[in-house]
């Protein structure tokens, strides 16, 4: 998905946020922002927003020497999400449709995205978001695919969200071999293998790295081993907006599971901004 022009202010705000977490030196912060702002006119050369995001945040790392500015944020979000796990487990068992509820829990994990919801009462937000229905869903097509799937690949998103995915992963592991893919290195507050290990999801899935260090799974930028796994998996679930932006034009079949937080992405999916979507792609 080509990067919308109105993504640029948000991306620049994220650079400022990362710079503030990486250093308190205002002179270095100014240098980072000047260099990042100078890159914005080149936005059309990037295949998607996550690809440009990777370039912008490399500026932060180069000027500060901090490889993972969001490390403390991710650790906090994982700890917070783990405290919510009993609540999520109760919600999953409240009616006779566990799979749909587990998919909704996984999608709702986006409330752990500190870049979007920072400063809000996460628990209150979570309870509200869990009750929101999917605005668009392809449950029937998913169930058909799941019945014959030997291998399931889930493409993770932010670090705190992995705890929400753990419940779905545990359910899927009862009938399929599950792989859970995360970023190949620090990318905003997205999960790496080290982050995923702390959530306990490794008890139900094989953790793999995409090899991609942008906040999205751009196929061409991933390691060859991961591309082989992506190509051969019987069923792929892609979590979050970054993965949607990076994979919206891939030819293989998969399912996008996300909250459409951006107006342009919501429009591309035919839903209102803020809606939850579980959409089959080339299935």
Task: Describe the SSE topology.
Blueprint: H1 8-22, H2 26-39, H3 49-64, H4 71-92, H5 98-108, H6 114-117, H7 122-130, E1 134-137, H8 139-148, E2 151-155, H9 161-172, E3 177-182, H10 193-199, E4 206-209, H11 224-232, E5 235-239, H12 240-247, E6 254-259, H13 263-269, E7 276-281
Parallel strand pairs: 1-7, 2-3, 2-5, 3-4, 5-6
Antiparallel strand pairs: 6-7
Helix pairs in contact: 1-2, 1-3, 2-3, 4-9, 5-9
Instruction: State the end-to-end distance.
Output: 18 Å
Total number of beta strands: 7
What amount of the residues lies in strands? 5-15%
Number of helices, counting only DSSP H or I runs of 4 residues or more? 13
Largest sheet: 7 strands, mixed
What is the number of domains? 2
Shape: globular
Order of strands across the main sheet:
1-7-6-5-2-3-4
pLDDT averaged over residues: 93
Q: H/E order of the elements?
A: HHHHHHHEHEHEHEHEHEHE
Give a written overview of the molecule.
- With 283 residues, the chain is α/β, with parallel strands linked by helices.
- It folds into two domains: 5-64, no CATH class; 71-281, Rossmann fold (3-Layer(aba) Sandwich), CATH 3.40.50.
- Helices cover 51% and strands 13% of the residues.
- It has helices spanning 8-22, 26-39, 49-64, 71-92, 98-108, 114-117, 122-130, 139-148, 161-172, 193-199, 224-232, 240-247, 263-269, and strands spanning 134-137, 151-155, 177-182, 206-209, 235-239, 254-259, 276-281.
- The chain has a seven-stranded mixed β-sheet with strand order 1-7-6-5-2-3-4, with helices on both faces.
- Helix 9 links the parallel strand 2 and strand 3 (177-182).
- The longest helix has 22 residues, at 71-92.
- The chain is globular and about 55 Å long.
- The chain starts with 7 loop residues before the first helix and ends with a strand.
